[in-house]
Amino acid sequence: MLSALVIAATSFGPHLLPQAVCSKHAYCCPDAKRCLFPTNQTCANGDACADGQVCCPLTKICVIPGAKCKSPCKSSNAYCGGGLRHCLQTTNPGTHCSSGCAGGETCSIITKLCSKLQEPCKPPEGEAACQNFQYCSPGTNSCLAPSKQRCAKDACAHGQVCDPITKTCATQADACESPCHDPGAYCNPTILSCVKPTKPGVSCKLPTDCNPGEYCDPLVFTCVQAFEPCMPPVKNATA
User: Fold this and answer.
1) What is the value of pTM for the model shown?
2) Domain boundaries, the chain
3) What is residue 184's predicted lDDT score, i.e. its pLDDT?
4) Which long-range contacts (CB under 8 A, 24 or more apart) does 50-53 make?
5) How far is CA 4 from CA 15, 67, 135, 206, in A?
6) 23 backbone dihedrals φ, ψ, rounded to 5°
7) How far apart are the first and last CA of the chain?
8) Which residues of the chain are modeled with pLDDT < 70?
């Protein structure tokens, strides 16, 4: 597993192909204009969502907001279901479809809610904001190419900045907006998950250098915990 991550993290060249704005596990909400990662918690009856989550007015389930997006669907009551490539309108918001759906409906693989198919759609996509060897840091709001030097105590070399999230010296590139809702986490472009350093400024080389439930990020080489799925930020996004 670690070797696969390292290979993916060290592929050469910039991202040339269009990149999806939202993770395949999320959907672009036309109301929130954000990629929303659904949870199993309903909020149809006015139930409060957990910290870091909001109640989606379309689906009435608690969701974790991510990157900004523009829905390609004509209706403001429908979202683009990436797997089905159709706009979906939830028929019974807040009620999961574990017991099946009515005739003419389908169970959304993203929200797990019964839905009616609308017009075909293509999930929003754009150009990758950061290139390979870079990640988007919410601490600097820019793409960073990390070095092996740490800055928890020491100053960085000339031309580098200290990332306050990872405490790693890095070369700063283009501006970007992190898709992670936690300001202390960044979207790892290798595993497509928001990760949060557990020991900022401390290097790791092997999985055993980290605690159980953590892994050694092969891009920054620091121990992190993974949270919700994400897609690296894009620019010039289309709907």
Assistant:
1) 0.73
2) 23-123, 127-238
3) 95
4) 52/181, 52/182
5) 19, 26, 18, 14
6) -65, 155
7) 34
8) 1-17, 237-239
Is the torsion defined by CA of 115, 121, 124, 128 positive or negative? positive
Rg of the chain taking only CA atoms, in angstroms: 19
pLDDT of residue 238: 64
Q: Closest by alpha carbon to 193, among 232, 164, 165?
A: 232
Using DSSP bridges, classify how beta strands 19-20 and 125-128 pair: parallel, antiparallel or unpaired: antiparallel
- Looking at residue 190, what is its pLDDT? 86
3-state SS class at 228? strand
| pLDDT value of position 126 | 84
Determine how many CB atoms are found less than 10 A away from the CB of residue 3: 8
Taking the C-alpha atoms of residue 160 and residue 167, their distance in angstroms, rounded to an integer, is 12
User: What is the token pair recorded at 61?
Assistant: 């389930």
E-only strand ranges, the chain: 19-20, 27-29, 34-42, 54-55, 61-68, 79-81, 86-90, 106-107, 114-120, 125-128, 135-137, 142-150, 161-163, 168-175, 186-188, 193-197, 215-216, 223-229, 234-238
Cα distance between residue 130 and residue 143, in whole Å = 6
